[in-house]
Specification:
The protein has about 300 residues and is an alpha/beta fold. The chain has eleven helices and eleven strands. The strands form two sheets. It has a six-stranded mixed beta sheet, sandwiched between helices. It has a five-stranded parallel beta sheet with strand order 3-2-1-4-11, sandwiched between helices. The two termini are about 15 Å apart.
């Protein structure tokens, strides 16, 4: 099981032929991440976008354009569609967002002609590594599905479980987190958490162990779970944290990064190929780690 980002990068370096299509690639932070990936021998890149601007930005960040393929398409929506078509046609195995609004990028992903639809819900999976713990944490969904229904939460769990499996966790433990650890009819998320746990027990959601509702503290901390008297197979041992809605998930994500100084990567799962969809404020290092996770999970 992979438990550190250094291990993920090392594994990704073993897939030098993994091809990444970058949509609207004329983005400084994205090209910095591409340079970092190439410098460590990770991946092969097709940069789709405004060729002149790509060349200018590449020069600024020290990226040798002879080491990448550049496909000139100055119009960002068309660039996104072309990048998506490279993946859907098998000419690339990973898609990465560049200098284009998320809505326009996802429109290309969901395009009925060249898109990456599978019939599954697309959801965001963040991968965190805290020095305080000996494992990865997976947080979902803090970026895409605003107010998931019970059925959507089951699919969101399935997507995160798939990512965890690809990173070597054969049976991830899923915590459906809420403000309290007991079912409270005034808090619908606690009822849905209990339902998801029962769905896991009955094999309706496979490849994982699910419990909830759990507080975030007693989901990840064995000491907190013991102190509060919260038992079960997931309490204090969670790998995947299912947020009740996008507001909670987004807040947890940003708290981890900005208050905890915890390294993070992010993917969109549920499509025909991994999608690197990072925040505009993410560092080149975070983008590099996201690329590494995408390369490993594309196999």
């Amino acid at each position: 099981m992979l438990t550190t980002f250094d291990q993920v990068v090392a594994c990704a370096k073993g897939h030098k032929s993994a091809r990444v299509a970058v949509a609207a690639a004329q983005d400084r932070e994205v090209l910095e991440a591409v340079k970092m990936a190439i410098d460590v021998g990770m991946g092969d890149f097709a940069l789709v976008g405004d060729a002149r601007r790509i060349a200018d930005v590449a020069s600024d960040v020290g990226l040798d354009v002879s080491r990448v393929d550049i496909l000139d398409e100055p119009d960002a929506p068309n660039a996104a569609r072309l990048a998506v078509s490279l993946v859907s046609s098998g000419k690339a195995g990973i898609l990465m967002k560049g200098l284009i609004p998320t809505s326009g990028f996802l429109k290309a992903v969901l395009d009925r002609e060249v898109g990456l639809r599978t019939g599954k819900l697309l959801s965001h999976v963040a991968v965190f590594k805290s020095p305080r713990y000996d494992r990865f944490f997976y947080l979902t969904d803090g970026a895409m599905v605003v107010a998931p229904t019970l059925e959507e939460k089951a699919q969101i769990i399935g997507n995160a479980v798939g990512v965890a499996h690809k990173l070597g966790n054969a049976t991830p433990k899923v915590a459906c987190v809420a403000a309290v650890e007991v079912v409270n009819p005034a808090m619908p998320e606690t009822i849905e958490a209990a339902a998801l746990a029962k769905m896991g027990d009955r094999g309706q959601i496979k490849g994982c162990i699910i419990d909830g509702p759990l507080g975030l503290d007693n989901a990840v901390s064995a000491e907190s779970a013991k102190h509060k008297g919260v038992g079960g197979p997931v309490a204090g041992k969670a790998d995947i944290i299912l947020a009740p809605d996008i507001a909670a998930g987004n807040a947890i994500y940003k708290t981890m990064v900005y208050f905890g100084d915890i390294e993070a990567a992010a993917l969109v799962a549920g499509a025909r190929a991994p999608i690197v969809l990072t925040s505009r404020s993410d560092s080149p290092r975070a983008r590099l780690l996201s690329l590494a996770c995408a390369i490993v999970t594309s196999e």
